[in-house]
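Quiz preparation item.
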């Protein structure tokens, strides 16, 4: 993990260094950046020569331009008006240049000398760095120090490494060297751009497109222009391309005399949008461009022999209204839906606004309110009451603030602030505003019909607090500077103002800064358009087509490539659903539906956009598909009802995105549907894109759809009537090729398997929702990898599941591939799946409800033989809990595990099993025995004679810990018993007992063992020291050891406190027991468990061995030391006996020292074995084997007196003396 983190840091550092090394500017713009349409000429022919083509602006805003006339490079430092430096070089007619971050300049010199030169900033000399075959119309140095050259006349881009001396020849980067239109061809490539991913973008000028070449790929991807997979923009000889920081494309569209750019809303014109010319807002054959670090744009205006600078205006506001993108034959349902009548919208509603989140705003002039509908709500969701009178228009910004006309009486425009629910005046006007608009620069426009003009005011610039004229001179008239009763207005992202000039029956366009309008529709337009009668509303869509509300004609019209046409309200004035009566305002929602204020009908009408008709009428068939529905065709329940239908599914792939028509006909009465990505016969509404049925015509179904080249579609042909068979054919029409491939295969039954679910069948918790469902598991064997269909016929409402590799009834979601519950298939499962050979698949057949039994059959259709064999899932008994809520036990048995299955819930002790009652008796007997042992031991070692050395102190403490250990045993036993038979005990009590009792019990057991080991060590020390043994030091060490030892042992057990917890689970209600409520059949279980990871489990096992084997080893070695050490000492003092005889005498005298630890070890071994047994052990089958072993492991705590006192003459003497003293004190 650490190495991965370091690697990520290194990659980030490398990426940051790449960004920092860029020599050119890649600004990050707002959502809809705007440049001043009027450029500033920073250099003319006298400075940059005739026909300049090459420009570069580096990151410190130094501008470089190649002067082809004088063969120089002209340089402006940041903000300098005049050139600050001119470089003279040995190059001829340079077409392009590129400047690196160190100031070196790479310049084209291919016209005469067939080379690219590098002018070195440090030495002011030039060297040849690349040999080429012709002029480089584009140069670029990428982040790997690779130089690229696009050769227009050789139709290719070549590259050469500048840093690798071994790679001194040019390599092909794009193109083949021959002109062509294929994706691996170029035709006159010009500008190029390489991003940090080494993706190469090429302005493929002659093919009117921009291509993207991924590293190592010879085929390009069309990202803009001709034949692009997705609709982008029409280009004419693009000559330059740049990516901004967000990877949006900016393109020089040479022969369209403009710069275009992409953003979230697609492509649009940025500068030079007013045709070819020499005005400040025009370009004439622009060739290349570059950004400075502020985002300003520098353009080589070739035919005008000048350099134009277009200033980036401040980041614009996001659009708050909808500008849908429609197809060329967009159609709306002619019959509108009334979403609001007079009771809601008031009398003669005139203004409406639909925001980008589909919130609808309508002004009720009768009640002076704003009525709001949030998306998809039938009834209004909010009504705003304000201090406005008879408002004639409104506009809503992206943040939800509402600008509303209040000019009729109070001569103002108000802004209702959504955050505070208060209104403020933002504009003073001289009459009411028949149209309001806030543009992307936060400028508010008001069209005043009574004043025959449109005024505007900046909302964000406090210095511009007065109104300015946007259109009209305030005098009624019809010339291009005048307006007559202007109403609806619209301002596009280029700040072009469109005005519905009502009494002049026209729509006027006022370009930014222009006082003369251009008639774009209606009376006296420059080109014949359409006759309008009092137009009152206007909107532009994403393609800048005009939508006009033609008020007195009661209709909405739209412009297109073939002129204007009527959309809705095309049946004259009236009150029918397909008519309008003096409509006044309209707006689009984000789906393209039109909302209209049908003023004279006192209603709001919604006209639904019909995407299915968004297709041209094609005359060229692209494919014909013929087939038949037969009795062997696949069946499905088309509408999920009781009737099933034969069908055939066909995969549809289109080469290019566009509009296509599918026409179906034949002997049958066909019903056609088309789906995105895939078709699910068990859910026919899923992924449904379009469908059609038209009985009785020559073409029985017709689908007009827009298909995306990057997506797969499925066409499904079925019939109107159930189980109809016959031939059919499909004709596909469109602009591009269409590939049709059959998907569904005829039914070919390879196997019928019959069986039954009985009371003896296993049960499981189906989907972790339905308990006690009988099931059968079958392994599927296939001989051929292919698509197979499995379905059931039964009387049990069969459910089907397919698993890969294994099925675990405790985890029914694990390894699950596919399932079906019989929905949309008459209650029987149907599984359609690709099966592969050499893979194990498990079919599980079960039921919808609990405890259902009965017969079933499974049918399998496929290409080859298939078989089913019984499969038995491996069920683990190492579990606690119910299915779907369980815990898998690890190593080790506890008293909880031994007694869990024997204890009966909510049953008093007298009614428990004999084993439980006998165990209860045994624990009491053991407690009494332990109590007697501890009392006798305490009597022995509490005397001062017994505590002359450390041994007595250890044994005194041991007599106490033995009593505590045996006491914790009885507490543990009764805690387990009582918490299992009484489920109402508080969880906090259970949690506390679970976490503490077992660790405390182990603490006293282990402490007892180590205290005994300390006794042995001290005896060995006594033998070693002999007469030099220091009793006081012995007692001092004993005190410290007794104090420290419990904490040391507790430290080794701390993991148990951390990992012990309660596991709670409830059984599912038994729905089959009708005599009880469901709640009465639910049983609650609580178990104390340990969640040990493998490493913690290993540690726990090691600690177990350490505490059980450790004291034994210490005791044994100490005893051996005492025997052999004592024998050696005696053999030196008593030479009349040899060493072997002394050993025998010592062993005879101290044999209890060896026998005692062995006995203790033997008695502790059962506990060790129990602790190492797997949790899967079925204790209920041999209860007393496990329970006896568990109880035996506690007997050492009851044998202190017998092991240490009884065999010792010294301690027995001390015991008798203490006992006699106690008797003497006790009165008769």
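Solution:
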């Amino acid at each position: 993990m650490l190495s991965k983190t370091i690697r990520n840091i290194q990659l980030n550092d490398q990426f940051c260094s790449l960004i920092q090394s860029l020599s050119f500017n890649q600004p990050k713009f707002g959502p809809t950046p705007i440049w001043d349409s009027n450029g500033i000429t920073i250099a003319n022919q006298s400075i940059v020569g005739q026909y300049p083509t090459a420009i570069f602006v580096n990151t410190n805003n130094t501008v470089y331009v190649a002067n082809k006339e004088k063969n120089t490079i002209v340089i402006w430092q940041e903000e300098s008006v005049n050139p600050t430096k001119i470089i003279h070089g040995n190059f001829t007619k340079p077409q392009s240049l590129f400047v690196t971050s160190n100031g070196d300049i790479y310049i084209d010199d291919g016209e005469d000398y067939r080379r690219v030169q590098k002018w070195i900033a440090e030495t002011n000399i030039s060297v040849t760095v690349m040999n080429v075959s012709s002029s480089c119309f584009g140069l670029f140095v990428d982040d790997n120090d690779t130089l690229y050259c696009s050769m227009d006349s050789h139709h290719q881009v070549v590259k050469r490494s500048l840093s690798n001396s071994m790679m001194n020849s040019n390599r092909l980067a794009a193109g083949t060297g021959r002109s062509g239109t294929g994706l691996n061809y170029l035709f006159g490539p010009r500008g190029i751009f390489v991003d940090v991913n080494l993706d190469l973008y090429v302005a493929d000028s002659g093919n009117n497109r921009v291509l993207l070449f991924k590293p190592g790929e010879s085929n390009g991807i069309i990202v803009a222009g001709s034949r692009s997979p997705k609709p982008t923009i029409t280009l004419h000889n693009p000559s330059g391309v740049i990516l901004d920081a967000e990877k949006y494309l900016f393109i020089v569209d040479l022969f369209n005399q403009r710069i275009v750019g992409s953003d979230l809303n697609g492509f649009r014109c940025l500068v030079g949008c007013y045709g070819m010319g020499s005005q400040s807002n025009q370009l004439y054959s622009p060739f290349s461009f570059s950004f400075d670090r502020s985002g300003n744009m520098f353009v080589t205006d070739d035919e005008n022999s000048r350099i134009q600078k277009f200033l980036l205006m401040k980041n614009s506001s996001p659009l708050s209204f909808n500008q849908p993108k429609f197809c060329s034959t967009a159609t709306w349902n002619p019959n509108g839906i009334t979403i609001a009548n007079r009771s809601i919208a008031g009398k003669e509603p005139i203004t409406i606004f639909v925001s980008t989140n589909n919130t609808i705003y309508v002004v009720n002039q009768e009640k002076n309110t704003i009525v709001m509908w949030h998306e998809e709500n039938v009834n209004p969701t909010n009504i705003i009451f304000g201090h406005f009178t008879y408002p004639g228009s409104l506009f809503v910004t992206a943040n939800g603030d509402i600008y509303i006309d209040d000019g009729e009486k109070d001569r103002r425009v108000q802004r209702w602030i959504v955050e505070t629910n208060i209104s403020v005046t933002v504009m003073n006007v001289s009459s009411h505003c028949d149209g309001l608009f806030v543009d992307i620069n936060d400028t508010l426009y008001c069209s005043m019909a009574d004043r025959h003009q449109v005024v505007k005011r900046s909302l964000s610039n406090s210095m511009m607090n007065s109104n300015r004229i946007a259109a009209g001179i305030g005098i009624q008239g019809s010339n291009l500077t005048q307006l007559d009763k202007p109403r609806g207005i619209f301002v596009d992202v280029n700040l072009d103002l469109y005005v519905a000039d009502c009494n002049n029956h026209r729509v006027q366009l006022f370009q930014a800064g222009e006082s003369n309008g251009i008639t774009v529709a209606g009376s006296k337009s420059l080109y014949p358009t359409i006759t309008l009668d009092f137009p009152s509303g206007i909107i532009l869509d994403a393609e800048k087509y005009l939508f006009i509300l033609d008020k007195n004609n009661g209709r909405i019209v739209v412009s297109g490539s073939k002129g204007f046409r009527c959309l809705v309200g095309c049946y004259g004035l009236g009150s029918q659903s397909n008519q309008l009566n003096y409509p006044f305002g309209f707006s689009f929602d984000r789906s393209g539906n039109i909302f209209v204020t049908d003023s004279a009908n006192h209603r709001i009408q919604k006209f639904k956009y019909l995407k299915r008709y968004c297709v041209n009428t094609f005359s060229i068939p692209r494919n014909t598909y013929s087939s038949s529905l037969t009795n062997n065709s696949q069946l499905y329940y088309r509408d999920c009802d009781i009737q099933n239908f034969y069908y055939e599914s066909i995969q549809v792939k289109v080469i290019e995105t566009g509009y296509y028509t599918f026409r179906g006909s034949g002997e049958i009465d066909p019903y056609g549907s088309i789906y995105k990505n895939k078709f699910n016969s068990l859910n026919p509404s899923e992924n449904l894109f379009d469908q059609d049925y038209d009985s009785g015509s020559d073409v029985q179904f017709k689908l007009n759809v827009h298909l995306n080249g990057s997506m797969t579609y499925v066409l499904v042909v079925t019939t109107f009537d159930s189980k109809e068979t016959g031939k059919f054919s499909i004709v596909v029409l469109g602009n591009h090729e269409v590939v049709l491939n059959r998907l569904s295969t005829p039914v070919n039954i390879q196997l019928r398997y019959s069986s039954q679910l009985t009371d003896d069948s296993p049960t499981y918790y189906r989907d972790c929702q339905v308990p006690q469902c009988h099931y059968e598991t079958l392994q599927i064997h296939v001989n051929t990898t292919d698509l197979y269909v499995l379905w059931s016929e039964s009387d049990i409402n069969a459910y089907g599941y397919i698993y890969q590799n294994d099925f675990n009834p405790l985890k029914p979601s694990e390894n699950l591939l596919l399932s079906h519950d019989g929905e949309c298939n008459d209650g029987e499962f149907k599984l359609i799946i690709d099966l592969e050979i050499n893979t194990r698949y498990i079919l599980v057949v079960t039921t919808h409800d609990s405890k259902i039994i009965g017969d079933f059959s499974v049918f399998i259709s496929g290409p080859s033989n298939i078989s089913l064999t019984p499969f038995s899932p491996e069920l683990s008994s190492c579990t606690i809990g119910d299915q779907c809520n369980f815990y898998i036990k690890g190593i080790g048995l506890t008293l909880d595990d031994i007694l869990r299955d024997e204890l009966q819930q909510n049953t008093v002790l007298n009614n428990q099993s004999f084993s439980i009652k006998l165990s209860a008796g045994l624990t009491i007997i053991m407690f009494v025995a332990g109590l007697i042992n501890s009392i006798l031991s305490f009597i022995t070692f509490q005397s001062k004679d017994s505590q002359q050395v450390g041994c007595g102190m250890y044994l005194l403490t041991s007599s106490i810990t033995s009593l505590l250990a045996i006491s914790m045993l009885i507490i543990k036993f009764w805690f387990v018993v009582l918490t299992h038979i009484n489920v109402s005990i508080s969880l906090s009590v259970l949690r506390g007992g679970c976490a503490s009792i077992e660790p405390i019990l182990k603490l006293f057991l282990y402490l007892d063992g180590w205290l005994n080991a300390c006794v042995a060590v001290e005896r060995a020390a006594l033998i070693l020291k002999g007469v030099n043994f220091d009793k006081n030091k012995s007692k001092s060490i004993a005190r410290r050891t007794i104090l420290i030892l419990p904490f040391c042992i507790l430290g080794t057990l701390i993991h148990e406190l951390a990992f012990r917890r309660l596991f709670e689970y409830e059984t599912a209600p038994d729905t089959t027991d009708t005599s009880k409520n469901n709640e009465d059949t639910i049983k609650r279980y609580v178990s104390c468990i340990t969640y040990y990871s493998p490493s913690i489990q290993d540690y726990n096992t090691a600690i177990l061995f350490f505490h059980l084997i450790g004291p034994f080893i210490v005791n044994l070695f100490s005893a051996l030391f005492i025997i052999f050490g004592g024998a050696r000492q005696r053999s030196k003092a008593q030479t009349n006996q040899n060493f072997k005889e002394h050993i025998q005498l010592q062993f005879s005298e101290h044999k209890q020292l060896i026998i005692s630890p062995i006995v203790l070890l033997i008695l502790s071994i059962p506990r060790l074995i129990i602790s190492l047994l797997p949790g899967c052990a079925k204790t209920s089958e041999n209860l007393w084997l496990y329970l006896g072993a568990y109880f035996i492991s506690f007997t050492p705590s009851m044998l202190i007196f017998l092991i240490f006192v009884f065999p010792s003459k010294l301690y027995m003497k001390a015991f008798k003396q203490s006992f006699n003293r106690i008797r003497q004190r006790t009165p008769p």
